[in-house]
């Protein structure tokens, strides 16, 4: 189970269980390398050819037919000028919510092989690594660009020191507006990667984090989960969604 942190634009605190956000995790902008005969060669990729942030026709269908109200949009940090149009399409044109996801896997350099290569941000032993101050400056700029968009939210990855779980630290963060939710990824296959066809992880795996959220007075949203295309996984996913709807600490999901 992977933890990260988001701040939602509108986060209520109901006395009963309710899913406020149900939607889709869009993929594309975080894999935007230039391609030659199908082989990724580097950055920048060609917008509209090597990558896109959204398919606007698909967005239209999901909003109209599936009643989706949240889209998680991902992008390399260097693509934010083009990213802005996708965010505006979802929030201003379609009047739905966006979770902003600058998806560099906490690394940079040789993007095609991420998350397994490149310099780790904040690595003091790597002279090529960006510093934690650089990281702070980036997210400050991100917040400034979208601060007037009330249908967008920020996203920041967090971790421990490699040996300690992030749950030891996340509850220590102080938000004066009490407007924060923890983002969690939970795939249902054997190794939690989302690459397997079978769904072997029972919904009871969420009990621990649910109790942790209650203990610290926090809310959460699952933004990546899924399984294979088969009846077993369809039933398992239904059980997960039912679970989220029953527990008041969960405010939504994207898949």
UniProtKB/TrEMBL annotation:
Annotated Gene3D superfamilies: Glycosidases
- EC top class named in words: hydrolase
Where does the signal peptide begin and end? 1-17
Which key words tag this protein in UniProt? Glycosidase, Hydrolase, Signal
Residue span, Glycoside hydrolase family domain: 41-150, 172-254
**GO MF entry, a single one:** cellulase activity
Which reactions does this protein catalyse? Endohydrolysis of (1->4)-beta-D-glucosidic linkages in cellulose, lichenin and cereal beta-D-glucans
Which GO BP annotation is one of this protein's?
A: glucan catabolic process
Residue ranges that the Swiss-Prot or TrEMBL entry lists as coiled coil = none
Q: Which domain of life is it from?
A: Eukaryota
Provide the E.C. number(s) assigned to this enzyme: 3.2.1.4
Q: Give a yes or no for keyword Hydrolase in this entry.
A: yes
Known InterPro entries for this protein?
GH (IPR017853), Glyco_hydro_5 (IPR001547)
Is Membrane a UniProt keyword of this protein? no
State the family it belongs to.
Belongs to the glycosyl hydrolase 5 (cellulase A) family.
The entry's protein name is cellulase
Organism encoding this protein: Arthrobotrys musiformis
